[in-house]
């Protein structure tokens, strides 16, 4: 029996010039990114005005839920049930930074609602902040509800040292 060779499809190759161009472009992007990062230039867009701010504490409960407490009166304004993975993850990152700096949990976290609709979770004890819109509207809304629930409970705290002029809106 005689073996017959099957025809082989032609090998597709990318032209060498295209590969070199892609490599150079990639190297240029990495170098430009590194130059900006190392220069210390602030490339963040300025924050919009703060329309609402709430000082909040978050407590893990024995049943696995997370209680959201208004800082002014330590009253529960919401209980987050279920996994709440994003909320837990965001808080875990801020708490980890406090522990790394040897700070206690006596200072509240601040949830800021901006004029452009963005939400920021801020830890004034460490200077850390999480721009929640970076994680999508669904995740940001998990925190956004805390602004409206705290306002509905009429638990606005007194103005903090870093609040904008005029302070948090009062009900």
Radius of gyration over alpha carbons? 25 Å
What average pLDDT do the residues reach?
78
What is the strand tally? 6
Outline, from the CA principal axes? elongated
Widest sheet: strand order? 3-2-1-4-5-6
Main beta sheet: 6 strands, antiparallel
Task: Calculate the terminal CA-CA distance, rounded to whole Å.
Answer: 93 Å
Helical segment tally? 3
**Strand fraction:** 15-25%
Structural account:
By secondary structure, this protein is α+β, with helices and mostly antiparallel strands. The protein has three helices and six strands; from the N terminus they run αβββαβββα. It has a six-stranded antiparallel β-sheet with strand order 3-2-1-4-5-6, with helices on one face. A hairpin with a 5-residue loop joins strand 1 (50-60) and strand 2. The model is unreliable at 154-171 (pLDDT under 50).
SSE map:
Blueprint: H1 16-39, E1 50-60, E2 66-70, E3 75-80, H2 85-100, E4 109-114, E5 119-123, E6 128-131, H3 137-152
Antiparallel strand pairs: 1-2, 1-4, 2-3, 4-5, 5-6
